[in-house]
Amino acid sequence: MSQFFQIHPETPQKRLIKQAVEIIRKGGVVVYPTDSAYAIGCQLDDKQAADRIKRVRKLDDKHNFTLICRDLSDVGVFAKVGNTHFRLLKQFTPGPYTFILDGTSEVPRRLLHPKRKTIGIRVPDNAIVQALLAELGEPIMSSTLILPGDEDPMTDPEDIRDALEHELDLIIDGGFCGLEATTVVNMTGPVPEVTRVGKGDPEPFNL
Question: Which domain does 195 fall in, by range?
Answer without folding.
Answer: 3-199
